[in-house]
Known about the structure:
Chain A is an all-alpha fold. Chain A is built from eleven helices and no strands.
Amino acid sequence: MSAIYILWLRELKRYTRSRAQILASLGQPMLYLLVLGFGLSPVFKRAGYGDYLQFVAPGVIGMSVLFSSIFSGLGLLWDRQFGFLKETLVAPVSRLQIMVGRTLGGATVAVIQGLLVTTISVIAGFRPTHFMALPLAMGFMVAIAIVFAALGVAIGSSLQDMQGFQLIMNFLVMPIYFLSGAMFPLVGLNRVLTIVTRLDPLSYGIDGMRSMLSAHSAFDPRLDILVLAAVGSVFIVIGAYRFSKIEI
Amino acid sequence: MIRVQNLVKTFGSFTAVDDVSFDVAEGEIFAFLGPNGAGKTTTIKMLTTLLHPTSGSIQLDGLNPQGHQNEVRRKFGIVFQDPSLDGDLTAWENMEIHGVLYHVPHKVRRQRSEELLKLFELWERRKEQVKKFSGGMKRRLEIARGFLHTPKILFLDEPTLGLDPQSRNQLWTHVKRVNEAERVTVFLTTHYMDEADRVAHRIGVIDHGRLVAQGTPKEIKEQTETETLEDAFLKLTGSTIRDESAGSADQMRQFAKMWSGGRR
């Protein structure tokens, strides 16, 4: 247990010490929120869907949690490169504990990031239907964070170096985001898009947040929880397995 | 304590370690010498559960590192050849993490960390982030960290690389002390032949993945009819310079330097 705790704490310390990085990582969500949020607002309203900012805010929060958690998992590659990974791999602690500590640490950081973006969106004019639902929405943030931190660890364990990073970014992370319904409603889509968006686990995370914070949900929140729990368990098992097989 | 039989490791068509066998007795200091790229670090990685051998067998204190990874990891400590610190954390925090991972009790951890940081003259700067340290200081911290818990076997992979003579001296005195006082078996590699001659009880010389000589420093000098270990080493391994192909880790380090402007 103490090993999990110390590795969790490490992720948190690294996060709080990189203030410049925190600030930088808020740039992109702010662009989506402010430019897209206000820019598409008139069209969205004319289509009869109401205020676009209310719609997109949970999506942008989900995005920041996604990016932050998956990058924390991929942080494994940095640790491999700078050598700290070796230090943990030869320690007399099961690799499962190391993986869990890292994943929880990365997930915690991602949730903090999500809360920061929530605050920004509230400042920008986003109004949750009731603020009482915020803790529930946070539950969905935690679920998203764990799912993708575990996925990040699974991928990070399988890559040798940073060269695959762009590939992962363009063919996995961005599609997960764009196909999640973060920016558009998941109703009335053509068949291909309907299928693909339903295969994306982030869809359920963002939909869950939306059903808590605004009124645009497409699925039953219980389905959202179920899918996230199932996918999360699978990713944790895969991540733990891949991590246990790392050779340096 | 360490028993290696017919150990082989191949990467694709390249054979890094080729049919190596040796024994290290309990309480012995064994120096593993060889030119760059001879297979020293690969051997250490296999001994310390970081790599799986292609064939051959390894026993550490009677256990196979592959079958009993966690038990084996409890038995050894290691100072790596290349950096393995977390640059974003302070020196003290690096010691703390190591202590927790190696199950060193809280009180002992604090006390030993303090002793070791003082011994290697890092105590004053324990609250600074490691990325601000000079190369020599980082190296000293790695070594101090390696001594935080008392393992049965201590692996030192070129521990003195980049250290000044004072720190080198400090290191070897300490190695000898734990070896004598706590009967720690030491397995080390170095490029400084005088160090090996001074510290090691027995020596193995590896070249192109094959063990070419084994014995006490005296025996090796007699075998090769040379005066110093340096001459013996050159006679055994020839005088051509080896190229170590840049591994992916090195390439990545290069890339990261470019990318982060040498931030870490």
